[in-house]
Specification:
Elements lengths: L1 H26 L8 H13 L5 H23 L3 H32 L6 H5 L8 E8 L5 E7 L2 E7 L2 H18 L5 E6 L11 H6 L7 H16 L13 H14 L2
Parallel strand pairs: 3-4
Antiparallel strand pairs: 1-2, 2-3
Helix pairs in contact: 2-4, 2-9, 3-4, 4-9
Length: 259
């Protein structure tokens, strides 16, 4: 009898815990807690505020595969249901792809030309693979150095006036090289001049760097680098480096990535 009561009590507690977790996810503002439809809806609304051509592009992307499959079914004179279902599934996938690509473009366009705009591009990196720190150092003239740690090692990204950045990046490269002398430290100047990497290409450039670390080595490097951060004052990012709308679109990127 006692065991039966204990089992009932345990079942009740588990049911209450599941109910509480479901309620937490329902009211959560973390995209990882949302369902698929809520993630897509959030991403669409945030991007549509900036990109007025998003809706027609998504409609076209959805309809085009359906028309193609209908044409195929008509030519084959059969299999209508299967072909239409295939077209709908392909249309949904293509529409989500269009949403993702235009969302990225909207994020970059909103941030372009503003102090701290590199944050928009760095936010497009998979945060499960690449960890980035904004504004690890800088100048009063709002030249900034950001840092990314991932499979390629340590990547230092500078944005601002090239002359001042050259000195700033060289100093940071020396400091980081002393901590991780056996691992690569990459230096990137963001900009549109010769020898620089544009805002549009920054995330792609970082992803394409030669991979030399596994996830355990990345964790070790991160720990070493934190020792450097601990002995110097934390620099605050300039206020408003990314417009509000761009922040919303960055959030929608996380929503599309979901779990």
């Amino acid at each position: 009898m006692a065991k039966s009561e204990a089992a009932k009590d345990l079942a009740a507690r588990q049911k209450a815990a599941r109910r509480a977790e479901k309620e937490r996810k329902r009211s959560s503002d973390d995209p990882r807690d949302w369902g698929w439809w809520k993630q897509i809806t959030y991403a669409y609304k945030a991007t549509a505020k900036i990109d007025k051509r998003l809706t027609p592009w998504m409609i076209g992307a959805f309809v085009a595969p359906i028309l193609v499959t209908v044409l195929i079914a008509a030519l084959l004179r059969g299999g209508w249901v299967l072909w239409i279902i295939t077209g709908v599934m392909a249309g949904l996938a293509l529409a989500v792809f269009v949403l993702t690509q235009r969302m990225k473009r909207a994020t970059l366009e909103q941030a372009r030309g503003q102090v701290g705009s590199a944050a928009a591009a760095l936010g497009m990196l998979n945060d499960k693979v690449w960890a980035h720190e904004l504004g690890i150092t800088g100048t009063r003239q709002q030249d900034l150095v950001h840092r990314v740690i991932g499979p390629a090692g340590v990547v230092l990204i500078g944005e601002g006036e090239p002359g001042r950045l050259k000195t700033l990046l060289a100093s940071e490269e020396r400091k980081h090289a002393q901590l991780i002398s056996d691992l690569p430290v990459w230096v990137v100047q963001m900009g549109d001049r010769e020898g620089q990497v544009s805002l549009d290409d920054l995330a792609k450039h970082i992803r394409k760097l030669p991979k030399s670390l596994d996830k355990y080595q990345v964790t070790e490097v991160t720990s070493r680098v934190k020792a450097l951060d601990a002995v110097r004052p934390r620099m605050a990012m300039p206020k408003g480096p990314i417009p509000t709308n761009a922040r919303q679109v960055k959030g929608s990127k996380r929503a599309l990535r979901g779990r």
